[in-house]
UniProtKB/TrEMBL annotation:
InterPro entries the UniProt entry points to: PhoX, TAT_signal
Annotated protein name in UniProt: PhoX family phosphatase
SUPFAM superfamilies: NHL repeat
Origin species: Myceligenerans salitolerans
PANTHER family per the UniProt record, alphabetical: DUF839 DOMAIN-CONTAINING PROTEIN (PTHR35399:SF2), SLR8030 PROTEIN (PTHR35399)
Taxonomy, superkingdom: Bacteria
Region feature Disordered, mapped onto this chain: 422-446, 590-612
Organism phylogeny: Bacteria, Bacillati, Actinomycetota, Actinomycetes, Micrococcales
């Protein structure tokens, strides 16, 4: 490889695992352990997790549920050189999202419904946890009490900034200024910025609000007037926007959140300049002129890929002054949405995934402006409306409907951008758009990955191609791996999160393999350059019914990290289908007594050494 430095991660790909396998499977020569699990105490007063005595107050002092985004930041932000050139020493800051909750496997029948709802509100959000180890390359231990440990949950106060802050459509009876909001919802993927903050996407926030109904802009986000699955409107009037004073509460969710893990007292910020949609996450790269560019996906069938270009340039270094400036970069800038144009005749894109006659799904693209120089580029919509109802704005300008774009992340070595389109079972179904060159399969069960080649990160035009069209080649002949032989790759389906290692390899984690190809989800390395471009090698498999999230690869330490989200969510509390992560025998007493059910956890994988 021509990129980066450091030695690679040597491993033989693991076998793909049947969907019923309830284990973390790692390559020969590696072993795994958990760093922290749902319910582990992280703040003073937090008790060891007791599944029979959960409370809202305790959950606010404990690690939250369903872990998604994951990073381990160095002790000092000065050790963040770029997204992949972080030097992790003997102390670090583990930052994770807690996307949602699974009450059927969290609570026994002794809990009343109101308590269950309150615990779940406290189990949403984010965690910052200090971690330590004896030396680089050793596994980490988390600290139960440490100055930077922090839980963000539904009662944490956030600042709203950017063009929509203070607008009438952001005001409520609790916040007549429209500039602060309690809580964050459904935080899915994210990204760590070069200045050492973490971005987090508010994704399926619509499911927590009962709205008055009748506003087509609300309908475009899937909001409805039916009671919600979570039922929080029974406890707090703000979750039913037909309550007087709360008409705008749902406008205060659906944003990209920025948290500074180095400053536990700073309120996290919701950045309205990056638009409001079902944000999977956001990933920042620095352009040659030092402006910063954030790439984002809106994870919904037939929704869009976006990019934000900051107005101001990044300041180098991690002085207090530089960091304070850099933390304002996402407050003001231009917002674009992607239009992909194929270069093959439409008739050659037949929906089966068969390659067109030029041998590639590829073409050119354009970043269509939504907001430029502080002005709306969308006819009939103000800047505030474009940013609040971004899906409607993108519909208006004719953006390209994608197959659920999830993580969108630039390769820090090449600037090429990778879009994980996880799947789209509705493409080509009655009344819905059929296959296009960038989304070439109808009933796209297995998903694909788009590679965007930018001129410069701030360019408004680009070239693109499909790096891979996913699936299990043994049961699907419409897979494509950039020309690499399909019989030599690990089967892969439903790409969700992407990451890069220090050699510029792409890593993918999946969500949905059990139902798509009957295999457990996992994490995979994909070679991007040279003869082996397109080779997919599975590194790890997660337990039954779990999703693999956030992968973090550190070649310096020969370590890989993964968040194991919703293990055993096909079971019940009484009859768990996953015993991850403690795998207790029946009757054995473990860290949570005799309860054997699953706990979403952060997992570390490291080289086996004799001395362990
Ligand atoms: Fe929370 Fe789009 O995954
Ligand atoms: Ca083509
Ligand atoms: Ca995801
Ligand atoms: Ca990522």
């Amino acid at each position: 490889h021509g990129h980066g430095h450091g030695k690679g991660l040597s491993f033989g790909p693991i076998e793909t695992q049947d969907r019923l396998v309830d284990d973390v499977v790692v390559p020969r020569g590696y072993e795994w352990s958990t760093i922290i699990r749902w319910g582990d105490p992280i703040l003073p007063g937090g008790h060891a997790f007791d599944v029979t005595a959960q409370s809202e107050a305790q959950q606010k002092l404990q690690f939250g549920y369903n872990v998604d985004y994951l990073d381990i930041l160095p002790e000092h932000p000065r050790d963040i050189r770029s997204m992949v050139e972080t030097r992790r020493g003997r102390r670090g800051l583990l930052v994770t999202n807690h996307e949602y909750t699974n009450p059927d496997i969290m609570f026994d029948e002794s809990y009343d419904e109101a308590t269950k709802r309150a615990v779940q509100r406290a189990a949403h959000g984010m965690s910052v946890v200090e971690v330590v180890r004896r030396r680089t390359g050793d596994p980490w231990t988390y600290l139960r009490v440490a100055p930077k440990n922090r839980r963000v949950h539904m009662d944490t106060e956030f600042t709203i900034d950017g063009p929509v802050a203070g607008h009438d459509l952001m005001k409520t009876v609790e916040d007549p200024t429209g500039t602060t909001v309690r809580g964050t919802l459904n935080n899915c993927a994210g990204g760590t910025t070069p200045w050492g903050t973490v971005l987090s996407g508010e994704e399926n926030w619509h499911g927590y609000f009962k709205v008055a109904g009748g506003d087509p802009r609300d309908a475009r986000y899937g909001l409805s007037s039916s009671p919600t699955r979570y039922g929080w409107e029974l406890d707090d009037p703000r979750f039913d926007t037909s309550n007087p004073g709360y008409e705008n509460e749902h406008h205060r969710f659906g944003w990209v959140v920025e948290i500074d893990p180095y400053d536990p007292t700073a309120a996290p910020v919701k950045h309205t300049a990056l638009g409001r949609f079902k944000h999977e996450g956001a990933n920042v790269i620095v352009a040659p002129d030092k402006r910063v560019v954030a790439y984002m996906g809106d994870d919904e069938q037939f929704d869009y890929v976006y990019k934000f270009v900051s107005k101001n340039a990044m300041r180098n270094g991690h002085s207090h002054w530089a960091r304070a400036h850099n933390k304002t970069l996402l407050s003001e800038g231009d917002l674009y949405v992607a239009k992909f144009t194929g270069d093959s005749p439409a008739a050659e894109i037949d929906g089966t995934g068969a390659l067109p006659s030029d041998g590639a799904f590829d073409g050119t693209g354009e970043w269509l402006p939504l907001v430029v120089d502080g002005a709306s580029a969308v006819p009939g919509m103000s800047v505030e409306e474009v940013l609040l109802f971004t899906r409607v704005a993108a519909d208006t300008v004719g953006a390209t409907k994608m197959d659920r774009p999830e993580d969108v992340e630039p390769n820090p070595f090449t600037g090429n951008v990778y879009v994980a389109c996880t799947n789209n079972s509705s493409r080509g179904s009655s009344g819905r758009e059929g296959a296009t060159e960038p989304n070439p399969r109808n009933q796209n069960r297995d998903g694909h990955v788009v590679e965007i080649v930018e001129g410069d990160q701030t360019s408004t035009d680009f070239r693109w191609n499909l790096l891979l069209v996913a699936g299990d080649p043994s049961q699907n002949d419409s897979t494509y791996f950039s020309g690499f032989p399909a019989d030599k790759v690990s089967p892969i389906s439903c790409p969700d999160n992407v990451a890069f290692d220090q050699q510029g390899n792409l890593w993918i984690s999946t969500d949905g393999q059990p139902s798509a190809i009957g295999r457990c989800d996992g994490i995979f390395r994909v070679t991007l350059t040279g003869r082996k471009r397109g080779n997919v090698e599975q590194f790890l498999s997660v337990p039954r019914s779990a999703e693999a999230c956030g992968p973090l690869i550190d070649l310096r330490d020969e370590m890989v990290y993964v968040n194991v989200q919703h293990p055993g969510d096909d079971g019940s509390f009484a009859e768990p289908t996953s015993l991850f992560p403690d795998y207790l025998d029946a009757g054995e007493r473990g860290p949570v007594g005799s309860w054997r059910g699953p706990r979403p956890s952060t997992v570390q994988v490291y080289k086996k050494r004799g001395r362990r």
